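User: Predict the complex.
Assistant: Input components as received:
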Amino acid sequence: MLARTLLLSAVAPGGEEEEEEVEVAVAIPPWKLILAGVASGIVGISLAWVHPVIPAIAAIPVIMWGADAVRRVAGYGLGTGVPSIGYMGLGGGSVAALLAVAMTNVTYAPIAAAVGTVLGAAIGALLGVLDRRVIKMKIPVMERCSTEIVAAGTLALMCLMAAVAGDFTWSAVYSRVIRTGIIAVLWVACALSLLHPYNACLGPSETQERTLSLAAECGSISAIVAGLASANPIVLIAGGIAWLISFWKFWVYTKRDAADVVWTGVVPKGE
Amino acid sequence: MGEGAKLNARGFGLAVPLLAVSFAMAAVNWTAVSKLWATLILITYGSVLVNVGVHYVPVGGAPAAMATATGVGTGTTQLAAGSGLTGLITAAAMSDKPFSVILANGAAGAAVMMAITMLVGNLIYVYGVGCPPCSAKVDRDPLTGWDQEPYVTPGTEGHGIPTVSFVSGIFGGLLGGTGGAMTYFALYKVLGMSAALAGVLAMGFFYANAVLASYNIGGTIEGYHDPKFTRVPRAAACSIAFGIVASIIAYVMSTYV
């Protein structure tokens, strides 16, 4: 079904007709991922003062949510490759996340995180509407997915910033993340985690489980990056364990989805 | 007036006035103007510059990576980011100099980065792949008047970066770099943010605009001679809408920090 859609979008005449929204079979419905992502993200940021490992691990469901949104929208064929939408998610997301951090000067961390996520969603909705109505992209789910991607990017970046800073306050985040330039590393780690899973798995045999397990693996690597950036061994070890589990899952799903797994043997000598 | 002259008039007629206006804006003492208005004007105009600048950059995407289309073989976002971020860094290096120096440095940084990318790309296309730089979208290069058709491999849309695309790419770098530097100046000088925060925010605005532009051109464009270049007004409308929202967010943030 997905392959057919891709093919149709490639050969369809460039008229004004709207492409139909297609239902793609999924193992986990989007609303569950949204709920899990938002809840774990905001709780993780709120509990950053307990230990930085909490937001670092809480970033994983957020990244899975964002990767699922990328998967839904990029299935229609963006025309520019999957990476562009991941960079857009973090382009708008970084702005919203920085505003949320700045807001901790006047309010509590959970409220700032929630407001930041809503603001990220609003920026995403604006970008989605511009893409669909002004630029006239023929993707029916553009507004919704763009909203979700920017909101997920905002939340994931806030989680990683809180993990590196050890607390979600302006003074901590500014002195340990922004002024040191680590934010650029976190920025790219988040963007890649959002865009890489679908970009790597896309094709006719793509399944949601495999893409999401790769997203969890990317999220774990982001947690490891956060652990390295803050030189915190507990975050590093927790990220490593999460990486082992998610990579194992990805390996299992890859073997399941593959037509056949064969040993190629040694190259024969001579003719 | 031949076809080439028309195309050149379109390309130069858009880029040169935009650059001229941005340098004329450097004469205004923006720190004396009301902060909200200064931010609104500078960031919105910067967004327009970035968005229009991306349309000038010869992006070939995946087909160009296989030398079956004209342009540099990578995506718009990566190319715009490469030159735009260089522009931001060179602009930030001149933080304490006057506005015009920041603008000029941002423009020069991005344009030089763009020129190096295209030059090295061309070296690979010519000496590595073994194809002459040419475009299938025009019969004659609008700048040099050289024939294109005999050099295009049948079944491809051209290859390499011909003169017109190269010059167009330099314009793209100048526009994008100026836009990035203008945003940086608005955040750093007008709103009084720290250099690091202003840099990260300007990067965020830059990426969002570059992706809007890359969706507008559908992934690939050869330069100002490409028929897709006529879609510029849509992108400009988008960047104005996004620029206004972005400048309000930046202004609100400056009141918290």
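Chain B touches chain A through 41 residues (CB under 8 Å).
Let me know if you want any component modeled separately.
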